[in-house]
Amino acid sequence: MKKIILDCDPGMDDSMAIIMAVKSSELDVRAITTVNGNYPVDVTSANARKILELINETHIPVARGMANPIIRNVPKDPFTHGIDGQAEVFLPEPKMPLSELNAVDLIIKIIKENPGEVTLVVTGPMSNIAMAMQKAPEIKNMIPCIIAISGAFGLNDYAFLNATGDTPQSEWNVYVDPEAAKIVYESGVEFVALGLDVATHFDVNFTDEDLKKLEESSTKEAKFLLNAIKFINAKGFEAYCAVIDCMAVAYAIDPTLVETFKAHVGVETKDGLTLGMTVIDRRHHFVWEHLPLISVGQKADYGRFLKLLLELVVK
Ligand code: BDR
Ligand code: CA
Predict the structure, then answer these.
(1) 12 vs 22: CA distance, rounded Å
(2) Residues 6 or more apart whose Cβ sits within 8 Å of residue 24
(3) Which of the 8 DSSP states describes residue 137?
């Protein structure tokens, strides 16, 4: 089993990512750490625990993380995950306590106790991860890989047509805390960026047969997903919005689901039109080699992705 920490900002798709990670027999979820992002951190921390209680997996610690980006104010999200942040399913208030450690310290502790073994799966702004690297730089050599829903690289139309940040070509998780993203991209840790190019593709869609499977399933997680899809469709958005973050968990389970390539990428931290953009230097000549070399997702097998997701949710 692959040990992971899931750092997230639930969010309906983060909630689905939690379900997927916890239910996978390939992953050993050591902690769920929460961050400001889709909602304030108190909401994301409650939502993570609500989901664990829904699926009776309350042994997994949930630690509350950064309430703000590293140096910026919290921006307003133009997109809504509903009043409760979980597609208005209104789960009961959580009973399980939060971890006594905050997310940053829990991340540092778990990595140090398991050097070289814990993959970070990140589906929110990277404030916690960057802060952990600033506080304990020695952990950078102990992280085998970070897999993140991060960036929009312009590799296909979806990257920018579905841009989630509040500048024309940025992705929400980078846009919220670009300085944190820059720290993590430049950390030297193996980094896999699954951007909007692969995570918000319209091919991430559920067939009538898939929806029937969800309707017929008696699991609470199938009902949660079905409600999220209906909620998002009613708002005029495609079903992929309910499962964007699941792509990072799916990649942790099976990296053959997404083709990646290595690229030098810079994160724009200047205010204005391009704030939060993740810029690939694709030039044949004069490439800026000082920009960090990361793996960028360019093509996913959506059929296998949805099959994996449905198998975990329906059974
Ligand atoms: C990201 O934005 C959030 O709304 C989603 O949870 C996802 O992590 C995609 O840009
Ligand atoms: Ca998210």
Answers:
(1) 15
(2) 249, 253, 312
(3) G
The ligand 1 atom at the shortest distance from the C-alpha of residue 10 is: 6
Tokens of 261: 């390539």
Contacts (Cβ under 8 Å, ≥6 apart) of 14: 8, 38, 44, 47, 48, 123, 124, 245
Predicted confidence (pLDDT) per residue in 154-170, tens digit: 999 999 998 999 999 99
- Note the Cα 146 to chain centre separation in Å: 11
How many other C-beta atoms can be found within 10 angstroms of the C-beta atom of residue 37? Answer: 30
- What are residue 194's phi and psi, to 5 degrees? -100, 100
Q: What does the pLDDT look like over 127-156, one tens digit per residue?
A: 999 999 999 999 999 999 999 999 999 999
E strand or H helix that includes residue 249: helix 246-253
Q: Which ligand is nearest to the CA of 12?
A: 1
For ligand 1, the distance from its centroid to the CA atom of residue 243, given in whole angstroms, is 9
Q: Which atom of ligand 1 is nearest to the CA of 79?
A: 4
Q: Does ligand 1 come within 6 angstroms of the Cβ of 172? A: yes
Which stretch of DSSP H or E encloses residue 106?
helix 103-113
pTM of the model: 0.97
The sheet with strand 146-149 has its strands ordered as: 62-64, 27-34, 2-8, 118-122, 146-149, 191-194, 293-300, 258-267, 278-281
Please tell me if the CB atom of residue 244 comes closer than 6 angstroms to any atom of ligand 1: yes
Q: What is the CA radius of gyration of the chain?
A: 18
